[in-house]
Every structure is written in C-alpha cells, then in structure tokens.
Amino acid sequence: MTPPPDQGKALHRPSRSWRLPGNLYVLLVSLLNTLLFNGALFAFLHDKLDLTTMSGLAIAASVFLVVFFFNLLVFSLLALVVPFLLRPFLVITALVNAVALHYMLSYQVVLDKAMIGNIFNTRTSEAAELISPTALAYLLILGVIPAWLFLRLRIGEPRRWRTLLQLLVAIPLVFGFLYLNSASWLWVDRYSKLLGGKILPWSYLVNTARYYADRKGDSRDFHPLPDGHFRDNEKSVVVLVIGETARAQNFSLYGYPRPTNPLLQKDDLLVLPDATACTTYTRGSLACMLAHDPDATDDEPLPSYLTRMGAEVIWRTNNWGEPPIEVTAYEKRDELRAQCSGEGCGYDEVLLTRLAERIRASTRKKMLIVLHTKGSHGPSYYARYPSGFDRFEPVCRDEEISKCSRQALINAYDNTIVYTDHFLHEMIELLKSVGDVPIVMMYLSDHGESLGENGLYLHGTPYMFAPDYQKKIPFLVWMSDAFKRRRGIDGTPPTEKTYYGHRNVFHTVLGALGLESPVYDPALDVLK
Q1: Cβ(374)–Cβ(384) below 8 Å
Q2: I want to staple 94 with a disulfide (CB 3.0 to 4.6 A). Which of 146, 154, 171, 509 is the partner?
C-alpha cells in the first residue's frame, strides 16, 4: 500500500541534529568548553598578569593551551572508547559548569577539595539562600543553551582513526609550545592550586573524587589514644562553644571600633590574642580542634576520647561538619526546639535549652558540653539573628552579597556578631546559675570570613592564599569563681604563649577536666 504523500515526506524528513566528522566534533566541543566555562580562570590571569608584555601573553597562552589540550585529550578518549557517553557528559557538565561559574565569579570561589566539602555539607535550606536571578541567568545562557547545542551536535562518521591521528598530532605541538615557553612554568607552579580550582569541569570532578576518598577514610575506626586518668573525683565542667564564620577583626573585644560586644565587654573574659584557625572551612577546622595533633588524623577525637575515659559528653548542634564521634548524647536543633520557647529558639539560643538543669542533673563528675552554633554563616547574614538585633543599618538582604553596598554588607555581618555577644553572655549567666561548680567556657570560631576585601567573599579560599580575615578568629575563655579557686588563679592568667588557636582546644579541655594523659601537652593548655 502506497503511503499518503505527507506521510512519505515525514518518513524521509532530514535529521534535526548537526553531524560532524568525529575529529571535528571533538575539536569543536573542546574549544567550546575551554572558552565558555573558564571565565573565572581568564579573570584570574587578567588580574595576575601584565598582558601587554610578551611574558604575560606567553603565560596566558600556555595556561589556555593546557586547558584546551586536556579537554581535547579527555573528549578524544571518550569518543574513541565510549562514544555514547560523550554527549551526556557534555550536557550534564555544561549545566553544572554554568552554576559553578556564577559563584566563582560572584564570590571568588575556588573549587578545591575544601570548597567541595563545603558544598556537600551545605544543607538544602542554605543552598536555597544562594539561588538568585543572576544564578538562573547563568544557568540559562551558559548552561541550557550550550547543553542544547551539544545535544544537536552528533558524531557523523565513525572513523575513529581521524580522532586518534588528531590527538597524536596535537601532543607534540602542545608540548613543543610549552617547552618553548618553559619560563612560564615557575609562575604556573606558584599558582597551581588556584589555577586547578578554577578549571571547569575538572576542578569539581577531580576534587569531588578526592573529597569522597577522604570521607571513606573518615568512616574507618580511629586509633584509640593512650588511656588516661582523672586526678580527682570532684565535679568539673567544660563548655566548648564552636562559632561559625566569626572573624576577630569585627569583635570590639579585639579593638574593632564598633560596639559589637557590649555585653561581653562587662564579663570577666580571657581574650586570647592573634588566634588562628587551622583551615578556612568548617569540616577541616573541627577535625583540627578536636585532635590532639592536627597531623594525627587517624587518632580518636576529643569527644570520643573523653567518653571512653568515663566523662559525660553532650554535643548540641545547630550546624554540622564534625568528624565521626562517640558521645553520651548528640542533640540536634530540632530536638531541642521541642523544649524551647521564645524567638531565640529559631536561632543559636536553642542550644541553651535547659542547659543549667542538664549540668545540675548529671551524675558524672566530669562533663564536656559542645555547642556548635550557626553563628555568622553567610551569605544570608541577616537571617542569623532574631528581630531586634539590627543594631547597624541599612542591612544587606540580598543573597548576591556582591550586589550590596560594602557598608550594608558589613552592617549585616556585624549584627551577627552582636547576636553572638548576646548568646555568649546569656550562656555565661546560665553557667553562673549552676552554683559553686568549677566551669570553664571556651568560645572560638571555626574560621573567619571575607566581606569583599580584594574582591573575596565568604570563606574556603586555599589556606596558602587566604587573607587573615578568613584565618584570624576570636578565642574567648570564661572561668567560674569555683574553677579559679581550684586552680589557684588570682585575676586573669597571662596571655604569653607563642600560639593561640584550634590546636589549644584538646589540651586545654584535658587540663580543665584534670585528665592526666600521655597525649596531654601543657604547652598548648591556655590556662597553664
């Protein structure tokens, strides 16, 4: 039976895709990926190099050629070995690249392993704060449109020898050019970590693999530390408050001209100078402060060690990022809210719920209580404190903080510090109400924050290149009168140690609880 004329035309309608020879297809998609998705890399080269000189141009050309050749190499191998995976790979990475590029350009993010850890440890509620019209525009223009183009393009003729020949010709040409420009190698080596974190999609693909390799290592059993023993059977309590994204430069206790610590200024605090974070991201910093030695990553962390030694260890959290720990009680924000009332229950104050009663009711003589706060986590600084704490105005209420005026951004951040001041003061008052019990409270942040200085925002910049704003943290200690009497402290202990920071936490806690242990180092005990 002869088909109707229209049906016959439909059967012979030309394909809606564009077919290219395999070698040209690989060449084109390699060039498009290099040009479209490496704006952050090109911006970095523009900032760091003098492109009016031959040496600057040679370095930029070398970097561009390396990125293009790596794309060509990977895409050629995919086309030769598993050609059916090449297009899906290009489509998916185009969409991810577009979103990544937005945040890299807007916040100067570097997608190294630490930043990948931050991304995977971000909860849905926080991720929603980062969605903006600009991010959606990037997704459409640099994600959806290129993805559509990659779907239209197809490999027309399966002559793989042409793709292989093209690759074999490219190898000596690229390496020959790089050899002739060997003077650029030192510059590339100097900035290799930053450069590697800006090349899409390989920065997040490689570092995601590295991150999950580390996470797999985290699931292993930690090596138990040598047993210790408590010097006495008297009750003593340590409250460790882990701040989030608080930088010392914005605390009036550290000389900041704005009154961000009006309540703590009146409390009898030990303000430790020049304290430094181990890393610029939460997970790494918590692992460091809970370790007896930051290099001994296989050893059990502080909470697990004290639990095994018989202390009561309570971990309360409005955050995340701690290593695997064994504790007496692990209490999340939502669990505590059921017993909490008032506006502060939606913020860090929820961690104070029935805190004094919990200490009084404990039958253990030694207690460690960890309060992991949300603190000053960005970019939505304005959402980190209750109404009534807008001490400084106007306030930045845009998740794209680079669009806010510098002053509005600082105002919002400083208001988070004012709320932290209130939170810590309220906690100290609660601890005073416990009675004549030796108590030590330590507060220090996991890392600092960049607020637009030198074009940087947020945190997570590789440590070698991170500014002090991301590394210098507040470190505060409060001691009850009973603790001072027991330790024979008259007035304020001297602050003359050569180091203050995360590495003090483990040893100061052991010293305050009177645990004698082979791993205890009195040189790192800030109360010694």
Answers
A1: yes
A2: 146
Would you say 512 and 440 are in contact if contact means Cβ atoms under 8 Å apart?
Answer: yes
Structure confidence by residue, pLDDT tens digits, 40-91? 999 989 888 888 888 788 888 888 888 888 888 888 888 888 888 888 999 9
Pull the structure tokens for residue 87.
């297009």
Contact 228, 120 (CB under 8 A): no
Q: Give the H/E segment covering residue 237.
A: strand 236-243
Which domains does the chain carry? Answer: 17-217 (no CATH), 233-524 (3.40.720.10)
Q: Could you write out the DSSP letters of every residue in 85-119?
A: HHHHHHHHHHHHHHHHHHHHHHH----SHHHHHHH
Indicate the helix (H) or strand (E) that contains 54.
helix 54-81
Cβ contact 497:523 at 8 Å: yes
d(CA 108, CA 4): 61
User: What's the pTM?
Assistant: 0.74
Q: Reduced to 3 states, what is the DSSP secondary structure of residue 440?
A: strand
Q: How far apart are CA 401 and CA 107, in angstroms?
A: 8
Helix (H) or strand (E) holding 476: strand 475-479
Per-residue pLDDT tens for 321-338? 888 899 999 999 989 998
